């Protein structure tokens, strides 16, 4: 029996080629950095137990587990999410947010059936037949000397700032802001993949918050920070469970400069101080005091200042795809390079290429 499924999509996740089989179920992951706001194509072809899974012309061939040569599928197929409560499935991901086109199953145009309101098609939630996602302008911090300086409204009673970031690096300064009249400093940075927020006055720490884990996984993460009077609140990844509050013994008045990603080389210690290392990665959706920052104006030199940035592109690369680590070595990466963990493989070297096999020597006997 033959099944054929194909479609294209625009997504706002990532992965590499992985194949897992548990209790007769086969799970395959293919593709990387697919949330780049570009169209991607998917084709799934099945003939008996042989399956060809293709994402953007990269194909994974595998055989399904189980006793049957046909698909033991449910009475319905769901695209974009699992709409029916009570289904006995394990689906830990959020519903899809983006656009899908050219959706065919065994030659049947599913979207055309949906447009014609055919009875066998059920639409749940906010689904439209147009792709009108707004264009989001990212910015790439390419080198250790990169930074973005944006103006703020000084002397406000408190401050509010939010943005999204993605990186492979475990450490780096995300934001530095000096309060009005040098009354204190706000620092947001990554340390060993965790998010840290410091609010201090001179050498006296007023607030020291740590949250999150593995935030250098290459995915987009969001930060929303609000400081009013003597209270600081931060939300990570729009998760209410990740909301932290801290009370400080000082009044916060917003400053006039917000440094993102790093400090200028000629910056004074009172203007911008970065002991954490520069951020190398991407940012987007920056809001200061609830006002969205137009990065195109920054690019045109009409707002703020910057150095070594690429605006309107996120230049992140997956250096572990393809995986150059041989013999089952595990690949990890930073912004500029990749590393191979050869533990347990019996091999060593930068790409686990050299065998640690014991040397075989020969003994010459005289007769």
3D architecture notes:
Residues 1-131, 137-314 form the Laminin G domain. Pfam families: EGF (PF00008), Laminin_G_2 (PF02210). This is Laminin G domain-containing protein. It comes from Chiloscyllium punctatum (Brownbanded bambooshark). The protein has 367 residues and is mostly beta strands. The protein is 3% helix and 40% strand. The chain is built from two helices and 27 strands. It has helices at residues 110-115, 295-299, and strands spanning 2-11, 18-22, 25-29, 39-47, 50-55, 58-63, 98-105, 108-109, 139-141, 147-151, 159-166, 172-178, 185-191, 194-201, 204-211, 221-228, 231-236, 243-247, 257-260, 281-288, 291-292, 305-307, 309-311, 330-333, 338-341, 347-348, 354-355. The longest helix is centred in the N-terminal third of the chain and has 6 residues, at 110-115. The model is unreliable at 12-17 (pLDDT under 50).
């Amino acid at each position: 029996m033959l099944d054929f499924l194909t479609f294209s999509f625009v997504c706002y996740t990532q992965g590499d080629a992985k194949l897992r089989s548990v209790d007769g179920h086969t799970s395959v992951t293919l593709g990387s950095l697919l949330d780049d706001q570009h169209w991607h194509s998917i084709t799934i072809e099945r003939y008996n137990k042989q399956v060809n899974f293709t994402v953007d012309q990269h194909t994974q061939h595998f055989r399904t587990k189980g006793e049957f040569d046909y698909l033991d599928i449910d009475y319905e197929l769901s695209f974009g999410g699992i709409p029916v409560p009570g289904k006995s499935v394990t689906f830990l991901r959020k519903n899809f947010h983006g656009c899908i086109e050219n959706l065919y199953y065994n030659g049947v145009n599913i979207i055309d059936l949906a447009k014609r309101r055919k009875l066998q098609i059920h639409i749940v939630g906010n689904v439209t037949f147009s792709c009108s996602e707004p264009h989001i302008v990212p910015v790439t911090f390419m080198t250790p000397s990169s930074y973005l300086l944006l103006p703020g409204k000084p002397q406000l009673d408190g401050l509010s700032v939010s943005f999204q970031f993605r990186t492979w690096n475990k450490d780096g300064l995300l934001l530095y802001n000096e309060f009005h009249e040098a009354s204190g400093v706000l620092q947001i940075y990554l340390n060993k993949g965790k998010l840290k927020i410091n609010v201090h006055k001179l050498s006296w720490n007023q607030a020291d918050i740590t949250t999150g884990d593995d935030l250098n996984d290459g995915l987009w993460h969001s930060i929303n920070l609000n400081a009013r009077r003597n209270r600081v609140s931060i939300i990570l990844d729009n998760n209410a469970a990740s909301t932290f509050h801290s009370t400080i013994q000082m009044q916060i008045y917003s400053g006039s400069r917000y440094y993102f990603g790093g400090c200028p080389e000629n910056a004074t210690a009172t203007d911008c101080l970065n002991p954490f290392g520069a951020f190398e990665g991407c940012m987007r959706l920056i809001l200061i005091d609830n006002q969205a920052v137009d990065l195109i104006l920054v690019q045109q030199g009409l707002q703020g200042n910057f150095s070594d940035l690429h605006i309107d592109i996120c230049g992140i690369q997956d250096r572990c795809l393809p995986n150059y680590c041989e013999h089952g070595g595990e690949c990890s990466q930073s912004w500029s390079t990749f590393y191979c963990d050869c533990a347990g493989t019996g091999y060593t070297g930068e790409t686990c290429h050299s065998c640690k096999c014991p040397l075989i020597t020969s003994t010459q006997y005289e007769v």
